[in-house]
Write a structure and sequence with these properties.
- The chain has about 325 residues and is α+β, with helices and mostly antiparallel strands.
- Helix content is about 15%, strand content about 25%.
- Strands 1, 2, 3, 4, 5 and 6 form a 6-stranded antiparallel beta sheet that branches.
- The chain is elongated and about 80 Å long.
Length: about 325
C-alpha cells in the first residue's frame, strides 16, 4: 500500500512538470506593459521596460547611430534631465552599445523599435551611480545611488554613421584649401603687435593686423598657391622683396618648423632635399614701413623672420 502511494506521488509530480513545460516560457527579469523580458542577459534582467507606444520601424541594432529624446525622473518625482528643456532642446545621437550614454540605454534600446516610446526603470548603477552629479535641470544635486526612470522616445535608429571627407593636402600642412586666413609672423610677437603678411602696391610686407582688410587675407588654393583676397593675385617669390602676380609659386606649411616654403623649380629633388626648401621670409625693413616708431618696433623682431602661424578668418571678416 505504501509502495502504491509512492508511485502515485511520483506520477503526480511528473504530470505537474509536464503541465508546467507545456505552459508559457519562463520570464527572466522584470516585465512591463507592452514588453515581456525573455532575454537571459543578467544586466538586462535588472532593468524594467514598459512600452507606452510601439514603434513601426525595425528593432534598433547595436553599433549603428541612434537618436533619442528623453526625460529622466528620480523616484521622488523630481525631473533631473530633459532633452527638450536643456540647451538647444535637441535629442542625442550616439552609437548604440558603444558606452556613449547611460548603460541602461545601451541595454534597453536594442529591445525597442524606431518610433517607440517607453519608460525605463534604471537602477542607479546603470545611471548616475554614486557620482556626485549636478543635474542639467532641477536645481539640486542628484542624491548618490539614485534610481532613475527615463521616459524615452526613439526618434531614429539603425542609421549608418556618416564619414567626413578630408581635403587632399601635404602631410605636414595645416593650411586648408580655399579658406580665408591670416599669416602671422611669429618673430613679431616680441613687438606686442599682431603683424601679418600684407599686400601693398604689389609687394608682400608685414603690417599690423586690421580686421576686414582684404589685403591681409589669403587663401591657399587647390594648386597650392597663396592668393591674396584683396587683389586676387598670387604670391610669387620670397627673396625679401616678394611680389604678387598672375602666376604664383607653390607653397606649403610645415607645422613642425612653422615655416612656409616652396621647392625651387630649377633644383632637382635631391638638391631641394639638401637645401631643405626656400622659406617665405620678409626682412625686418619690410615690417610696418613708415614712422620711426614703426621701424623701431620692426627691429625688435629677429632677423630670421620666417616662422608663421595660421589664423583662419571668421565669417564676418570676409564681408
Amino acid at each position: 500500500m505504501q509502495y502504491s502511494v509512492a508511485v502515485a506521488a511520483l506520477l503526480g509530480s511528473t504530470q505537474a512538470i509536464a503541465q508546467k513545460s507545456a505552459g508559457a516560457g519562463d520570464v527572466y527579469g522584470p516585465n512591463g506593459s507592452g514588453y515581456s523580458n525573455t532575454d537571459a542577459n543578467y544586466d538586462l534582467s535588472r532593468i524594467g521596460i514598459a512600452v507606452t507606444s510601439e514603434g513601426k520601424g525595425a528593432t534598433c541594432r547595436p553599433g549603428d547611430w541612434t537618436t533619442i529624446h528623453w526625460v529622466g525622473t528620480l523616484k521622488d518625482g523630481r525631473v533631473v534631465t530633459d532633452s527638450r528643456a536643456e540647451a538647444g532642446g535637441l535629442p542625442k545621437t550616439f552609437a548604440l552599445g558603444a558606452h556613449e550614454v547611460f548603460r541602461c540605454w545601451d541595454l534597453a534600446v536594442p529591445k525597442l523599435k524606431q518610433g517607440s516610446k517607453a519608460r525605463l526603470d534604471c537602477p542607479s548603477y546603470y545611471a548616475y551611480g554614486n557620482a556626485r552629479t549636478w543635474p542639467p535641470v532641477g536645481g539640486e544635486p542628484i542624491p548618490l545611488n539614485s534610481d532613475v526612470d527615463f521616459d524615452i522616445e526613439v526618434v531614429e535608429c539603425n542609421r549608418t554613421p556618416d564619414f567626413t571627407d578630408y581635403y587632399k593636402q601635404p602631410k605636414t600642412t595645416t593650411m586648408q584649401p580655399n579658406k580665408c586666413m591670416w599669416l602671422h609672423l611669429v618673430e613679431s610677437d616680441a613687438t606686442v603687435n599682431e603683424m601679418v603678411l600684407t599686400e601693398q602696391e604689389g609687394k608682400a610686407i608685414i603690417h599690423n593686423k586690421q580686421r576686414g582688410d582684404l589685403s591681409q587675407q589669403w587663401e591657399w588654393n587647390d594648386k597650392n598657391q597663396l592668393v591674396n583676397l584683396g587683389t586676387k593675385k598670387q604670391l610669387i617669390d620670397d627673396n625679401g622683396d616678394a611680389e604678387l602676380g598672375a602666376k604664383g609659386a607653390e607653397w606649403w606649411y610645415d607645422q613642425t618648423t612653422r615655416t612656409i616654403g616652396k621647392k625651387i623649380a630649377a633644383y632637382s629633388e635631391e638638391r631641394n632635399d639638401w637645401v631643405m626648401h626656400k622659406y617665405l621670409s620678409v626682412p625686418k625693413e619690410k615690417m610696418m614701413p613708415g614712422s620711426e616708431v614703426d621701424v623701431m618696433m620692426a627691429r625688435a623682431a629677429q632677423d630670421t623672420n620666417k616662422t608663421w602661424r595660421i589664423e583662419y578668418c571668421d565669417t564676418h571678416d570676409r564681408t
